Every structure is written in structure tokens, then in C-alpha cells.
Amino acid sequence: MPKITQNITGLIFFLILALFNSSCKPELKSDLPVVQLTIDGNKLLVEVANTESTRMSGLMFRSEMGSDNGMLFVFSDDKSRAFWMKNTLIPLSIAFMNEKGVIENTLEMPPQTEQTFMSAGPAKYALEMNAGWYTKHGIKPGDMVLGARTSPSSKD
User: Fold this and answer.
1) Residues forming a β-bridge with 72
2) Less Cβ around it within 10 Å: N or C end of the chain?
3) How far is CA 66 from the centre of its chain?
4) Does an H or E element contain 16, and which?
5) Does residue 35 contact residue 48 with C-beta atoms inside 8 Å?
6) Above 90 in pLDDT, residue 74?
């Protein structure tokens, strides 16, 4: 095989491999900080809402979210939290976590409602995922969310 053909074949192989690898990696494009979390062996790539304005807007007006993507809400203190779904177009599940990253409770939240969804106790973090995600993966109160405590801290 001529040398130029070998080089072109090698280049084509490299490009195909690069495309395959990039399509297998989870990607999340966001203006917010993005971190990886792990819950019971499940790896997540999530946006971090750690300011008052980003926590207020959350996932409002989005029409979809990746299967292992979500939004981590980070607060400056550990206290009772209440969320609602006004202007949120997709159904979500939420996990409230204490300052150690331990899940206190999970709830299912239908879209576009002003109903209040409360933490079962003091929560420093909340993690919104697609509806049913926690049930599908067997995640329950007492499970640890690895990476929550090392995510960007609250800027309030």
C-alpha cells in the first residue's frame, strides 16, 4: 500500500474513532458551572445553580434534559426548602440533601404548577432530575450524593 494511502487510511480511522468517542461521552453545554456527581454508582453531569438568580430560574422554560443530566441547587445554609414548578415545562424528580450530601427525601414534581414541594428536613442541596429518575435507579433517602459537597459553593 502506498505511503500516502496509509496516511489517509490512518487519518480516516482516527477521525472515526474521535467521533465515536465524543458521541459516547456525556456532554452538557451551559453557562452555569457543570460538575459530575455519583449516586450509588450512577454518574451524573449536572449544572450548578449557586446564586439566588440561578436558583430562582432553575430549569424553567426548558423543553428537555439529558437522561443523566440535572441541576444541583446549592444554598449557603442548611434549612427547610420549598420548590415549585412555575414555568417549568418538563416533569422532574427532586432529592433534598443535608449538608453532608445525604438524601433526606425525594419527590415527583409535575410541570407548570405552583404547588409547593418541601424538604423533609434541613437541606443544603437539592438535585432535580427527569421525572422518575430516582425510582428507576433505586435511589432512596439515606443514599449519599458524592460530589455535592465539593461542587461550587453558594455565592450568596
Assistant:
1) 48, 127
2) N
3) 9
4) helix 3-24
5) yes
6) yes
Instruction: Decide if pLDDT at 132 tops 80.
Output: yes
Give the max Cα distance, the chain.
71
User: Where along the chain do its domains lie?
Assistant: 28-146
pLDDT score at 23? 38
What's the pLDDT band for 13 if we cut at 50, 70, 90? very low
Residue 86: CB atoms within 10 A of its CB come to 12
CATH topology of domain 28-146: Jelly Rolls (2.60.120)
Residues 6+ apart with CB under 8 A from 103: 39, 95, 96, 97, 139, 140, 141, 142, 143, 144, 145
Say what the pTM is: 0.83
Residue at 3: amino acid letter: K
pLDDT at 96: 98
**Do residues 68 and 136 touch, judged by C-beta distance below 8 A?**
no
Find out whether 75 and 124 touch, Cβ atoms under 8 Å. Answer: yes
53-79 average pLDDT score: 96
* Phi then psi dihedrals of residue 10, to 5 deg: -65, -40
